[in-house]
UniProtKB/TrEMBL annotation:
Record PANTHER family: OLFACTORY RECEPTOR 56A5, OLFACTORY RECEPTOR 56B1-RELATED
Coiled-coil stretches: none
Superkingdom of the source species: Eukaryota
Record-linked SUPFAM superfamilies: Family A G protein-coupled receptor-like
This protein's name: Olfactory receptor family 56 subfamily A member 5
Database matches in PROSITE patterns: G_PROTEIN_RECEP_F1_2
Gene: LOC100951484
Any one of the GO BP annotations: cellular response to lipid
Record keyword Transmembrane present: yes
Any Gene Ontology CC annotation: plasma membrane
InterPro entries named in the record: GPCR_Rhodpsn, GPCR_Rhodpsn_7TM, Olfact_rcpt, OR51/52/56-like
Length: 320
């Protein structure tokens, strides 16, 4: 099915809605893909909701480290809810239209919340650095006031620097149709429909993305390098293995988060050599796999949270 805007809209550049084609070359197997995506979406929402409720109800978990984990869960849930329901609506009900304003709102949330998540990873890495490298100073450094300031910094820095991306795209004149060859409103997928020069849009997104994500990744690597250095000096039996197991799983998850973004950049730069459906699928999975794994790796594997979830389940069963 070919979706096109009316000729009058083309001539004036005023488009009221876009149409998301998703996987243009593999329309027939979209229903099969929706099954694992919906299961991952369900896992992500249930796991993050359970984690948030547990931290909220369990007084013993009202600590800075768990507040940061709550912030990460909230960001994950917003990202999932911004992208996946629309993708599933396309797969199941062929609801491909998205309004002009909704498209650019989705673009803003994706850009800002992904960088907010990266920044939260950086703050959490700093939290682990202080806890392991300066344990005696931890209560005086990582306080509730620190968490509040960190949350304000995460939201303000990333929100202010990424909001020009959808604004720049929305101010373009669209005369090359309104069919987006993607499942979501990414900046490049949308702006290339414009008949104006989009070089500045591309450069701004590239510069902001690498500045925010790159600086976060460098600070995360430095934090875990210092942690590794201190951990290897610990003589207590089992302490090294426990610390390496915990921090190792955190670091692997962060690397996965960063590597997927790097792969997306590479696939967009070399898109003529790579099937267009591959970066589209990768982009969707990037909004699903980290939100599904974060509460498990950061939360359930933590003894205190595991005990809190067990207590919550016991109370729920008793009430039934």
């Amino acid at each position: 099915i070919l979706y096109m805007a009316s000729p009058s809209n083309h001539s004036t550049g005023l488009i009221s809605e876009f149409f998301l084609i998703c996987f243009p070359n593999f329309q027939s197997w979209q229903h099969w893909l929706s099954l694992p995506l919906s299961l991952l979406f369900l896992l992500a929402m249930v796991a993050n909701t359970t984690l948030l409720i547990t931290i909220w109800l369990e007084a013993a978990l009202h600590q800075p480290m768990y507040y940061l984990l709550s912030l990460l869960s909230l960001l994950d849930m917003v990202l999932c809810l911004t992208v996946i329901p629309k993708v599933l609506a396309i797969f199941w009900f062929d609801v491909r239209s998205i309004s002009f304003s909704a498209c650019f709102l989705q673009m803003f949330i994706m850009n800002s919340f992904l960088t907010m998540e990266s920044c939260t990873f950086m703050v959490m890495a700093y939290d682990r650095y202080v806890a392991i490298c300066h344990p005696l100073r931890y209560p005086s450094i990582i306080t509730e006031q620190f968490v509040v300031r960190a949350a304000i910094f995460v939201v303000a820095r990333n929100g202010l620097l990424t909001i020009p991306i959808p604004i720049l795209s929305s101010r373009l004149r669209y005369c090359a149709g309104n069919v987006i060859n993607n499942c979501i409103c990414t900046n490049l997928s949308v702006s290339k429909l414009s008949c104006e020069d989009i070089t500045f849009n591309r450069l701004y997104q590239f510069a902001v993305g690498w500045t925010l994500l790159g600086s976060d990744l460098i600070l995360i690597v430095l934090s875990y390098s210092f942690i590794l250095k201190v951990v290897l000096r610990i003589k207590a039996e089992g302490a090294v293995a426990k610390a390496l197991n915990t921090c190792g799983s955190h670091f692997i998850l962060i690397l996965f988060f960063s590597t997927v973004l790097l792969v997306l950049v590479i696939t967009n730069l070399t898109r003529k050599r790579i099937p267009p459906d591959f970066p589209i699928l990768l982009n969707i999975l990037h909004h699903l796999i980290p939100p599904a794994l974060n509460p498990i790796v950061y939360g359930v594997r933590t003894k205190e949270i595991r005990q809190g979830i067990q207590k919550l389940l016991r109370n729920f069963i008793l009430e039934l």
